Sequence to fold (420 residues):
Amino acid sequence: MKTLRNSSYIFLFIGVLVIELLIGGFTEFSDIKILPFLIILFYISINKFSNDYILAFFFSGIYYDLFYTSNYFGSTSAKFLSIGIVVNFINNKLNDNLFSEFLVFFLAVALYKFEFIIYAFSFIQLTIVFLISVINYFLFKLINIILKRDVFTQSI
Amino acid sequence: MFQEPQKRRNYIIYILFIFLSGSIFLVDLFSNKKFSNLISDNTDFLFPVSQEAVGFLDSLELNFIKNKNTLISENIRLKNEVIELRKLKLINERLVEEIRSNNELIKNVNFENVVYYKSTILIKNTEDEYLISGGRNINLNKNDLILNEEGFVVGYIVKVFDDHSLISSIINSEFSIPGIDKYGNQYLITSNREELLINSIYIEEVNLNIDYISTDVVFDHIAKFPIVRLSNEEVSSANNKISAVVGIDYKFNFDSNIYIVKEK
Fold:
């Protein structure tokens, strides 16, 4: 049962990763992007951090390195796992308020897009990262609200 | 009570997996990507979105707008006809443009031993590299040149998959290609994503009247294709070095006509 659950997480994460890549394409290659994979990564790191998702992060990174980039094998897995652990660690240290959460999200986006920042560091790139953070944080909050609503206990 | 040790255990396992990823990374690094290439070369992976699907999804937007107009307006038939005519006009314009660009391409690079494969951009990955249609199925190889509709080099293939390939384009900071001018001076052309940086690596004759810098067989390129036009750009020379900075005007999108050059 546990194997089945872990396998389903792997397929789910890979699916979300492919959706993210396709969304990136259909937004006419703009710099401001919607990052569903990062949102799910952030959501799990903050709300459901556990060992159950390690294989999903690991294999989605391997899958991405294998078929979509010229990166060295394993670098994306390390990135996903590092984001998960860093986000969870910092979030536990900070106060539970909107500003802190956004700050952690901004850090997660910066780590997620670190190649983008390192290779062409400029104020414009930082602004783009900030805008990506704002848009995706809004989506994260929206998903958070939807997932927190217990529809089964709501009275009709 | 049990939360803190459990969290620590989670962190340790996450860190162990980061080390595992790091180990795989090191194996790939020291094997000069042979490890990852071995797996990707032996895996039959077809891209989840085909060239036709990209075209279909691109046209969905137009259909959606058309349906919306149908609901709003009572003059649906007339409007549809107008839309159809406009679409036909657009298709016609696109075809005329394609013929013109194809003619331009033939005029710029007229080589008999070369074959051009028309390709399409499929997606852009998170490192801003483009995946294009065509891979091992049309015998593409690493470092095959990618041309735009005017015949200028806009990238080269860095990784080949079954039916798609990854390219390093002029908007990637890793883009780097050697070129030569009409005087035999050699250059290295790199990109900072917004501009092409041209720096000489070998000078035969200092002359700033450079029209084009192009690829050449001396760099193992298939033939001479223009990379950058310098006739209207500021070129500087100092200490027996020639350099120039040229802004990148070319934009990649789904409608980009890109061509992969192969030997016949």
